[in-house]
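Posted in: Structural Biology > Protein-Ligand Complexes

Title: Requesting predicted complex, iron/sulfur cluster in pocket

I'd be grateful if someone could produce the 3D structure tokens for the following input. Sequence and ligand are given below.
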Amino acid sequence: MDHLCSDHFIAHAQHTVQHTIESYDLITQDDKVVVGLSGGKDSQVLLHILVALGYKPDALLIDEGIKGYREHTIEPSKRLCASLGVSLQIISYEYDHGSTLDNALKKKCLRPCSICGPWRRQSLNRHAKEYTKLAVGHNLDDECQAIVMNVLSGHQELLKRHGPINMSAKHTGLTPRIKPLYFLSERQIRLYAYLTHLHIYPGDCPYAPLSLRGRIRDWINEYEHTHPGTKKNIIDWFLDRRDRISLSPSHSIRSCLQCGEPSSQNICKSCKAKQTLGSHCS
Ligand code: SF4
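-- Reply #1 --
Done. Output follows.
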């Protein structure tokens, strides 16, 4: 795929996504799809490809309130949506959770991604309720990292969330998440963005170096370099076993006792983070 000319590479990437959508029944004719847009390369490429394939998604952007970063990705998102004729809704953490991420992190006891992840998940779920599918820009590299992280930390139940469609999302209150970019690598997505002239902000979230995911990513990339095919092997290994992963009753989805949103625990992680914000850690 990487040895194709520009036009054929673009067509092949789009074909790969269409094939993923059809193989896993990700989008049917009756579906109303919203794309979780971050403004980064993955979600911009996802939106671009879905529109190119004839789908008519809306877009939803969550503004975490990360100064010096998020504002650089909001403008390109607005421009892309305007050029593709896609309706864009922007929701901030301040609106949904009462604080920007930057302000929340003034409390030193909170780790950036451990609060940001649950808040974003909850905001996306909350504002995607009127849709039948929530399309996210996770690519092959993201999935490999998530699978390895969950295996290493013994969170077998979380593996159930992975795959081209989130199989545990059939429960009331959750719009099923789909990952049409599942079989495209980060490198291929970067190339697609370049060849289609998408405006991608080159910077990363300033909190990203603190995450475990960053270290796992480097480790997998290094291993892929010396053992080509590693990423594909990880995905194949997972997809082979995914249907056999069972959930214990303790991991069933229920309603959070505080906010009422779907949660695997009595109090969801998003509300727990808010509780910590209200506590006395300095
Ligand atoms: Fe949020 Fe962490 Fe991602 Fe930054 S790297 S946007 S803090 S989840």
